[in-house]
Design goal:
There is one protein chain. With 241 residues, the protein is mainly alpha-helical. The chain folds into 2 domains: 90 residues, Cytochrome c-like domain (Cytochrome Bc1 Complex, Chain D, domain 2, Orthogonal Bundle); 91 residues, Cytochrome c-like domain (Cytochrome Bc1 Complex, Chain D, domain 2, Orthogonal Bundle), CATH 1.10.760. Helix 4 packs antiparallel against helix 6 and helix 7 crosses helix 11. It is globular and about 50 Å long. The C terminus is likely disordered.
Length: 241
């Protein structure tokens, strides 16, 4: 009997010791908060926090750093995936994407999707020449060049996960992306449409279209959250949310 008791005590002791030394990560109630990831960098570290480059309200820097506020979460997550696998190139973003889990990506995407869509980025309607406007809204059938509105929405404020907003971004950013599509440094869009479109544009047209889509007014203010395009967000029982 004494041996049985000794064995039982030994088993309990080992179990308790194992529990005390378990190295499994303990997740806090706010670990998956998109806002916290945007402010702190999440798994990518504080030096890589979204706000460091994209601003506290996701407004971008008014130059080459894009606006994030109001972006469709499906599109947002897809871009992080492309950075992670090297189909979209930017040293900082590639490093950040590689360190964010899928849940972290979705959380921060939902955070920015729920933010108010920004206003026009400060260009002027005069920057939209008649020829550029024609290309934006009607394209050029003689070259099989589709209108920008075909994929990016009639108001260029976006059309779901496959067609990001153009009117919210600066002319400099839109031009840089057209050039990235043209050169092949950026790819991975549906049917490879942007690579083809960018190569069909003449040099002056490329600059003119980039300026034009940035000069046009975008859709009104705040949008409804669009996280359902990926999966339904569930409340975190640990935080009472």
């Amino acid at each position: 009997m004494g041996r049985v008791k000794d064995a039982m005590f030994a088993t309990v002791a080992v179990t308790l010791a194992t529990g005390c030394t378990d190295t499994a990560p303990v997740t806090g109630p706010f670990e998956q908060s998109g806002e916290l990831i945007a402010l702190s960098g999440g798994d990518a570290g504080a030096a890589n926090a979204c706000i460091a480059c994209h601003g506290l309200d996701g407004e971008g820097d008014g130059k080459l750093v894009p606006r994030l506020a109001g972006l469709d979460p499906g599109y947002f997550v897809r871009q992080l995936e492309l950075y992670d696998v090297g189909q979209r190139r930017h040293a900082a973003m590639e490093a950040i994407a590689a360190r964010l889990s899928w849940d972290n990506r979705l959380a921060v995407a939902n955070h920015y999707a729920d933010m108010a869509a920004p206003g026009a980025p400060g260009t002027h309607a005069a920057d939209c020449t008649p020829h550029a406007r024609q290309l934006v809204f009607s394209g050029d059938a003689s070259r099989n060049l589709p209108a920008c509105t075909t994929c990016h929405g009639g108001d260029l404020a976006g059309a779901g996960s496959g067609g990001p907003p153009l009117a919210w971004q600066t002319a400099a950013y839109n031009e840089s992306q057209l050039r990235a599509w043209r050169s092949g440094r950026r790819y991975g869009d549906p049917q490879g449409a942007m690579g083809e479109v960018s190569r069909l544009l003449h040099e002056r047209e490329l600059r003119a279209v980039a300026a034009c889509v940035s000069a046009l007014p975008d859709a009104p203010g705040r949008r409804e959250p669009r996280a359902a395009s990926l999966r339904e967000r569930r409340p975190d029982p640990r935080s009472g949310a």
